[in-house]
Structures are given as C-alpha cells and as structure tokens.
Design brief:
Elements (H helix, E strand, L loop, with lengths): L9 E2 L3 E5 L5 H8 L2 H4 L9 H11 L11 E8 L4 E12 L4 E8 L8 H16 L4 E7 L3 H9 L3 E12 L2 E11 H5 L15
Parallel strand pairs: 5-6
Antiparallel strand pairs: 1-2, 2-3, 3-4, 4-5, 6-8, 7-8
Amino acid sequence: MTGFRPTYPLLTERLELRPHRMDDLDDLFAFHSRPEVVRYTPWPVRDREETRVALERKLPQGELTEVGQWLVLAIELRETGTVIGEVLLKWASEADRQGEIGFALHTDYQGKGLAAEAAREMLRVGFEELGLHRIVAVLDDRNTASAGLLERLGMRREAHHLQALQFKGEWANEYVYALLADEWRAGLSPRPGSAASDRG
C-alpha cells in the first residue's frame, strides 16, 4: 500500500470525524488546557500558543503515507459543529497488518457514549478500509474509564505491563487491549447506543 486516506467526513449517529483545520484552535484549546483531559495522554497541559503549534502538526494527519504514522482526526459534534475531542488510528505494520487506536475527549462531553462512538468508527475504518488484522489500544492501568470503554467495544485485555515506561515523571503500568478482524466481522463489538463512560 502506498497510502491511505478515508473519504471524509466520516459520519456516525452524532459525530463527524474529519482532518483538523486551523479554525479548530479555540475548541482544541478548550480541552488541551484541562489537566483532567491530559492526565493520561502523551501531551502536557497546553496554553493557547502550544495548542496552535500542536494543531499545525495535525493538519496533514488526515492521511497515512507510510507505516508508523497516525491518522489524527477531530471529533466534531454534528449538532453544534463543536470539536469535542480527537480520535487516532496508527498504521503500525503493513506486513503484519497491525494498528493501534487512541482517543481524548473534553470532560464536558464524557459519559455520553461519544468517545465509544468515535472509537468504534475508527475500528471500522481500520478493519474494513485499511485492511488491518489486529488493532490494539495501550493505556495507563489507572485509566479505568477508558479501560471500560475498550471492553464495551469488544476489545480484550491481553497484557498488563508493570512499570513499563516513565510517564510524566513517574513509572506507569500499561494495559494492552486488542481486537482481531475476525472478531470485528463476527459482530463481537457492540453496536451504537451502548452505554459508556467516555473519559479517555
């Protein structure tokens, strides 16, 4: 495969998933600046200028041109046009058809099933469009809300790595969740409308 770009926008019942635009800055800053949102993300709390710099890096990440890249999409609430979070899909291996997902959501919109709705659509893109065989999610084991979300998506906890990395000044333990394409096709992933506590 030489590259991959979904047909945008990706629409779910309540959401539009699409590449970032510079006019997303105010909405991104609204949650990138919140400690409770970034507690388990790779980035720190950001001021407006740091958010702007990060946003510029996201602009070309609506397509995958080589292995190792992340597809990074804005989660836009269709009802209001507000960007309320981000959802990610990594093309981890072409030969082994491996991927990884991630997500972050503004605290005001958590607990409504929205992160699960976005993550489910990215699983669909990964399996049905990119042709991945296995998709994982890696998270801090203290992030119990996101762990529960992944389990509701039908993902299975495969590993628990103790003191796996230095994360924001301390040793962190990691959970690894995974889902196979055959499991996805068999319908093990719950359909839209399942309850979720979407902190991630």
